[in-house]
C-alpha cells in the first residue's frame, strides 16, 4: 500500500486557521456503512446517534508546551516539550540553527530560566529544567497550535484549543483531540437527555501526530509512542453497550487508537489497559471495539487519514473528501467534522 494512495488536492483557503464563533456550529459529513455520504450540521449528531449508544472521549489536556528562548551564545531557540519524564526532566524537540550537544545550557523566557540538554532519546532531546516544568510552561509557554495555522497562538486558542471536558490533572498533550472541540456543554447535555452515554479514555497526544509519513510503502512507517489509559469503568460501559446491540462511537482518532490499543494488548479482547502505544491503523485492520468514528478532515498522506480509511475504506473516504472540497467544508483542527460508520464491505 503506497503513500500516494492517500493523496488528495486541498485548496489552501479551506484550511480553518481560526475556530467558528460557536463550537457546535460546524458542519458534519456522514459516511454511512454503504459508503454513501450525507451533509449535515454538527448538531444533527443528536439525530444520528441512538438512545443507548456510547461516546468515548479523550479527556487529556493540552500543555502550553512551546517555549522560546536563547542559547548561551544568544541564538534563538524553540523548545517543544513532548513528554514529561518527571517534574524536572522531559523529552523535547528543539529548533535551533545548530543542534545542541549534551551539556549545552539553554535559557527560557524573559527571565532566562536555565535548562540543560542531557543527551538524546531517538529523535528527541532529553532536557533537564532548573525549575518544575509545569511552572515554566505556565509562565512562559504557548499552546502548540498546529503548524498549518501559519500563526502564533492567540488568546482565542487558550479556550478553543481545549475540550470542554478535559481533566485538568491530565495536562500532558501537545495537541488537542480535535474531534472533541465540536462539543459544547449544551450539546453534551442534549445527548445525555436523549440517552446517549459518554465515557473517557486518556491518550496524551504527541508531536508525532503532525509528523509526515516518509516511507513510500506505508507498512514500513513506524508510529510515534504515546501513553494511554483505558480504565475498567470505560470497558464496563463498552461491554454493556455492545451487549444490548448499541454502537460504540469513538470521538477522534486518539480515542480510537486508545481503545484499539487496549484490545490489541489483550489479544483482541475488550479489556482495560494502560501503557505506551505505537499502534498504526491502516486499511486491512480489523476493528475490535470501535463501530463509528467522529473525526475531523485530515491532512493528505497522514496516518490519521489512513486510520479513517481503515474504518470505511479508502475509496469511500477519498470520494467523501472530494465532495467536502466541492462543498467548501473547512479542514483540519478547527474545521468541520465527519461521522464515519464501519463499512459493510
UniProtKB/TrEMBL annotation:
The keyword rRNA-binding does not apply. It comes from the Bacteria. Keywords: Cytoplasm, Isomerase, Queuosine biosynthesis, S-adenosyl-L-methionine, Transferase. It holds the Pfam family Queuosine_synth. Its EC number is 2.4.99.17. It is found in: Cytoplasm. InterPro entries: QueA (IPR003699), QueA_dom1 (IPR042118), QueA_dom2 (IPR042119), QueA_sf (IPR036100). The keyword Cytoplasm applies. GO terms for biological process: tRNA queuosine(34) biosynthetic process. Pathway: tRNA modification; tRNA-queuosine biosynthesis. GO terms for cellular component: cytoplasm. It catalyses: 7-aminomethyl-7-carbaguanosine(34) in tRNA + S-adenosyl-L-methionine = epoxyqueuosine(34) in tRNA + adenine + L-methionine + 2 H(+). One of its GO terms (molecular function) is S-adenosylmethionine:tRNA ribosyltransferase-isomerase activity. It is an enzyme of class 2 (transferase). HAMAP family: QueA. Belongs to the QueA family. Monomer. Transfers and isomerizes the ribose moiety from AdoMet to the 7-aminomethyl group of 7-deazaguanine (preQ1-tRNA) to give epoxyqueuosine (oQ-tRNA). This is S-adenosylmethionine:tRNA ribosyltransferase-isomerase.
